[in-house]
Automatic annotation (TrEMBL), chain A:
InterPro entries: Adaptor_comp_med_subunit (IPR050431), AP2_Mu_C_sf (IPR036168), AP_mu_sigma_su (IPR022775), Clathrin_mu (IPR001392), Clathrin_mu_CS (IPR018240), Longin-like_dom_sf (IPR011012), MHD (IPR028565). The lineage of its organism: Eukaryota, Metazoa, Chordata, Craniata, Vertebrata. Keywords: Cytoplasmic vesicle, Golgi apparatus, Membrane, Protein transport, Transport. Signal peptide: none annotated. CDD domains: AP3_Mu_N. It is found in: Cytoplasmic vesicle membrane; Golgi apparatus. This is MHD domain-containing protein. It comes from Pagothenia borchgrevinki (Bald rockcod). GO terms for cellular component: clathrin adaptor complex; cytoplasmic vesicle membrane; Golgi apparatus.
UniProtKB/TrEMBL annotation, chain B:
Residues 703-716 have a biased composition (Pro residues). GO terms for biological process: protein transport. InterPro entries: AP_beta (IPR026739), AP_complex_bsu_1_2_4 (IPR016342), ARM-like (IPR011989), ARM-type_fold (IPR016024), Armadillo (IPR000225), B-adaptin_app_sub_C (IPR015151), Clathrin/coatomer_adapt-like_N (IPR002553), Clathrin_a/b/g-adaptin_app_Ig (IPR008152). This is AP complex subunit beta. Signal peptide: none annotated. It comes from Pagothenia borchgrevinki (Bald rockcod). It is a peripheral membrane protein. The keyword Phosphoprotein does not apply. Belongs to the adaptor complexes large subunit family. Residues 642-657, 671-684 have a biased composition (Low complexity). One of its GO terms (cellular component) is cytoplasmic vesicle.
Amino acid sequence: MIHSLFLINSSGDIFLEKHWKSVVSRSVCDYFFEAQERATEPENVPPVIPTPHHYLISVLRHRIYFVAVIQSEVPPLFVIEFLHRVVDTFQDYFGVCTEAAIKDNVVVVYELLEEMLDNGFPLATESNILKELIKPPTILRTMVNTITGSTNVGEQLPTGQLSVVPWRRTGVKYTNNEAYFDVVEEIDAIIDKSGSTITAEIQGVIDACVKLTGMPDLTLSFMNPRLLDDVSFHPCVRFKRWEAERILSFIPPDGNFRLLSYHVSSQNLVAIPVYVKHNISFREGSSQGRFDLTLGPKQTMGKSVEAVLVSSQLPRGVLTANLNPSQGTYTFDPVTKMLTWDVGKINPQKLPSLKGTMSLQAGASKPDENPTINIQLKIQQMAISGLKVNRLDMYGEKYKPFKGIKYMTKAGKFQVRT
Amino acid sequence: MQEWANQLCENRQFGSKMTDSKYFTTTKKGEIFELKAELNSDKKEKKKEAVKKVIASMTVGKDVSALFPDVVNCMQTDNLELKKLVYLYLMNYAKSQPDMAIMAVNTFVKDCEDLNPLIRALAVRTMGCIRVDKITEYLCEPLRKCLKDEDPYVRKTAAVCVAKLHDINAQLVEDQGFLDTLKDLISDSNPMVVANAVAALSEIAESHPNSNLLDLNPQTINKLLTALNECTEWGQIFILDCLANYSPRDDRESQSICERVTPRLSHANSAVVLSAVKVLMKFMEMLPKDLDYYGTLLKKLAPPLVTLLSAEPELQYVALRNINLIVQRRPEILKHEMKVFFVKYNDPIYVKLEKLDIMIRLASQANIAQVLAELKEYATEVDVDFVRKAVRAIGRCAIKVEQSAERCVSTLLDLIQTKVNYVVQEAIVVIKDIFRKYPNKYESVIATLCEHLESLDEPEARAAMIWIVGEYAERIDNADELLESFLEGFHDESTQVQLQLLTAIVKLFLKKPTETQELVQQVLSLATQDSDNPDLRDRGYIYWRLLSTDPVAAKEVVLAEKPLISEETDLIEPTLLEELICHIGTLASVYHKPPSAFVEGSRGVQHKRLTSSAGSGESVESPDTGSAAVSEAPPTVIPSQGDLLGDLLNLDLTPPTSTGPPPTTAPGMQLGAMDLLGGGLDSLIGDESEPPPIPLRTDTPQSPQPPHQSPSPPHYSPTEVAPGNHTGSLGGDIGGSPAMGTGFGAPPAAMPASFNAPISGGLDDLFDLGGGGGLTMGTYIPPKSVWLPAMKAKGLEISGTFVRRSGVIQMEMTLNNKAMSVMSDFAIQFNRNSFGLAPAGPLQILTPISPNQSIEAALPLSTVGPVMKMEPLNNLQVAVKNNIDVFYFSCQYPISMLFLEDGKMERQVFLATWKDIPNENESQFQIKDCHLNSDAASNKLQGSNIFTIAKRTVEGQDMLYQSMKLTNGIWVLAELRVQAGNPNYTISLKCRAPEVSQCVFQNYETVLKN
């Protein structure tokens, strides 16, 4: 099982270590540093690194490497999942997961890691159980603790750990009972030069924020559940009911949680919200290149496309870019060659465009590579797959909760080749 | 640490007093004293703050062990947080302060009886983490109670504690019967307890290979399946992994387990999903293919696998490695999902490369157009490694999908037109493979290829181009000019190119003999006379003999029709694949190597095989044969230069040498050695000092292996043991490309019959050339020769020699760092060798070697290491490790290193022994051009522990009778005849192990001539 954990920052310092079995020397990280040196980009460090006596399994999040050390055959996904859970927990506790935040809360971090693994076996990874055991630090609590000397460790037995619904603590009480569900879809697509879709798929999630008193039992039904043929559920969802009736039936955890994630594969017809007209070209023998980009809405069901951000890694030979945006602002980083254009909202009557010239280094030959254009965007009040919630019902409690459903579409890895 | 702590403090604005970072600021001297005072304070609050500071120091790696007694004093408290903090501290430092840790025992035992189950569990959990023997004794009783505790939370914690205890003291756990209690917990009413018991048992079972700890029967399986639905995600992983080890009795049981596992495919935790996939993939084998459920299951497997690919890149990577196995075993699952493997430009490189691999595996006639368009797109990306692999992938598509070959070739030609240097080179390498698969089909493109001849600067591309020119010499008008242009810088080329050029020109000569005679003579003389590469020289000589004795036969051999390369030589070998399918989701599946190949944790892994349903037509082999096949067939198909060193690669490179690898690991080498030596080997490696009385076999002229007749070759052997590589190349193949594997083997079959005599003659010539090479001994220390050139070892150059000083054999080396970076962490290891030479201690290189620095190292050797017959006898294969990589080389030691100081035989004994050794064990050699008189020779030889026992003068000839004794107890007797005025000596050697004679003779020669 998981032997040790090292946290390494982007400059290569080990700033925290935790051992669940015997102590493994820090020098084991040298193998990681070697791999890090070989990798051209921080994210290119291989996730599994063998060393003579250990294996190092790492994830990179928030520019921190979380490096787990294992000694025997352990499923790597188990380790990676756990590491992501650690990051999520830190984020949940401290709001951000940064080196500074971890150092500021080092004792809580240590206590958390101790509760999350026992001898390398996961012990308590559910946020509500952890929060019962160790209270998250808040400014107020820290102040109160400093003044009164009280503790941030729960004195109670974490009852949730033993119940049949370990994800929910008992005795929850709210004055305003509310349940909000966010349907968020990310569209991943590759569009080729000519504008036709090579592949497009949708990663969707339903995130919930449930603040309900007692032990409510919820059911959520969809207008078009057929869309959901590839789903992953939170453990609270009753799988049999879904199989039989295509209804989500569950006792929700308290607070924020991800109820479900789903995937609409490229075999379905996926709507593409925007189109891009582009002309990025260099002429042989000339040190100037043309850059011409126009965006327009495509299949948006009448909703407006907002927060559009276009980025593109221009060829290495490009020295400067002299462009003129019809709206928004653009930047070009001459070191990384990254061009970013913050477009904002697309007005269908007046399409945003970015036009101008790029100049190459003197004497540089015509670049071979074609830059790829990366697009980020947001569309409110629409799930691009067409998924719609039919109704939400609550059983088991008497009060009437306030319910809300929100839809949103974002671009995930949305790439246009030129 | 201190630095960043201070910096952190400065950088922080207000509010910093409120956070834990304040604990990092007190790093000044006297801190320990201050903390000590605070820990002993009466005020609870101050105490707690102090413990917090101690913990903070500990987490950043500062040594606060001196505070042990003070911290332990804080343990008896009702404050849960303080207790926990103290426990944290204890776990960290108990090991270094075992006596102090005892002080904590009482509190632990008391806490185990606490009313609060949380405290009970915490106490038993912490105790298990204190890895001190003395404490574990006290742990047994509380643990036994906790395992039967009424509270499941305590039971579940105690279950893990058994695994901890087992890690510290396995015997104790067995003696105390904890294993049985743990097994009982599998039937516990609480699913979490079941899951933890399974997890603990699985971990313990890993160190007990043959125990039946997880004795699975239908009842326990049923309990596990019930618990599976109710326990946490992590518990589900343990249970699923455990289920995968079960072999269902029939297809109905198999189906019912599959049905109950399938819902796990929808779990949000990807590790649960992959473990479920493993169980399903394994149990699916049992299902009849015509069953409806079988089809349903296949359909259900695709979506979760696709979903894994939308997770974080690290998860994607592991998923892709496993999908790679799954598509090889059951391509139908994902055949419609090609698009999800299309590469996004900002995927990490490790994801890109894996996706590419799977794309090729899924390529079929139906989707090839799409795939090719994608691959072409990738070939214009920025990342060089990725571009190269994409170009190669196009070639693999051509070989895999015949209908697409034409399109692939035209795509490759398009890419060549881009004139991007590495794209062109990569394209030429794969086009060569396409020629091998579809001969006489696409040769029209050769003209285009020839246009880019000048731009090729990588050996592999040059070799590929040369192969093409040689292979199609008759269709290329100026083939001779082209090859001649390569010949100009022959010595600057890499070996790969040199070998290929040699073969290509010989092919050309056989095709157009009239115009190219001069060229072929030129290359043969370059290869045989001016080169010091034994492979090249050997091949040159063989061609030379071949051409001069029987050109018709030469044509048959060299221009023999080559077998077509098969479509996918990079597929994982089926038995290995079956085993890996049983290990989906594990490290083995990420590395595509059997679990037994792993360094640690492999002790207990049994080989797992898929069991298929009866009548499905797939072979069911016993696990034993399966595993044997696996170990003999490494996953790489093409033998590379490195493979010549055989099992040296498997050695564990830790400095203190102990045992060699088990004898089964180097089949090739061992077979070769056995075959040549027969009974002689026994006497050579036997450690009895008396020569064994078994009659020994000698090599007679009728021996079926001409090259091994005495005199046996000094330089020849390392290549001999791996016939697949070099001899196979005679037919004109080039190794190194992934699709070439099956090309080996066929052509050399024609060789032995027709070329017996000429070759052995040729080899004799060869040995005369090489025989004089630098062996020296005794007081004379030969100059160091380069063993490992810097080019082959990433800048590390090792030269060295062997010395015997007052009975101690030393290997003296100069390590020269010609790289740009510092080298450190050196270690050395020997392969098993004829006389059991082994390092007597670790390699003493204490300081790192900086660039351009060289360092002298002397390594004392012992002769008690593991023994394996080498060819030649005094060959030594060495592996040297440093912080950069592991490197292998072989060198030869003078056999006089092994001559003992007490090697002088009694006269009578000598006489008797001489008579006793049968005459066929006698070998006679000539030592030419030696101008010493008999006394001077005798003195000189004595320096190398060759002792003259008697001298006789008959008819103006001095006869010296000499003896020497090898470290393994073998005596060698010699009669040296020296005639005044004649510079040629005659030496007769008699030994019960005649194999050593050759070495001994060489040794005489070198000693006498230096």
